[in-house]
Amino acid sequence: MRIAQNNRESLFFTPSSRSIGDPTDRKAQRSEQYDTVSAKYGDFVMKELLPPIKATYNIFRAATLLKLKRVVWASSETTLGLPFEREQPRYAPIDEQHPLFPESSYALSKMISEEMARQFSRWSDIPFVGLRFSNIMEPGDYQRFPGFWDDPRKRKGNLWGYIDARDAAQSCRRGIEADTRGAEAFIIAAADTVMNRPSRDLLAAIYPGVALRDGVGEFDSLLDTDKARRLLGYMPAHSWRDHVEV
Question: What domains can be seen in the chain, in order of their start residue?
Fold first, then answer.
């Protein structure tokens, strides 16, 4: 591999000194500006994707070498397709059966880490619990919520979801105590949305083509935590409605 420089003084990366299929150095040099990747942009994988994957790998590897009884780790709701622009939700509330649509390097790293968890669990028989946290909020953040209410587009990117920090901590404890096997991922969210409008109305206004599944209450979250409730015993206990007058 080598680093070349074009006449605009931008650094370029190319895997070889000759363009694939070009028989002459002259043609290779002439086509270099087309078949090379600018180092300015080509190092995204080194800066954005690999660091979180490497960190997660090291933790998973250490856990297996130390023969820990269980690994509970933070995945992310972003794996589901946030901000739902290229791909709209297939249905709502979204659950763990929903296809994964990572739309950022961060989300992609979490999806890859979930696969790593499955393989490390297979190798070691250690249970791995991945928690797909929604947007974590502390009680002091709730005073900002009324600022979301005039326009449902402000928080549509994660289907108006959130999770109280205290319930996030609860889910970690539940993950440690639960009797699960293999590697599992769980959506962790509050029981309600950040909005003062019914969930059905929010979905109809922003995602009119997305089917709303049966059994959704007036202000219920559109991030389904049923799996976490069943397998972990997770039960969200905190809501912004306890802190802000509607």
Answer: 2-40 (no CATH), 47-242 (3.40.50.720)
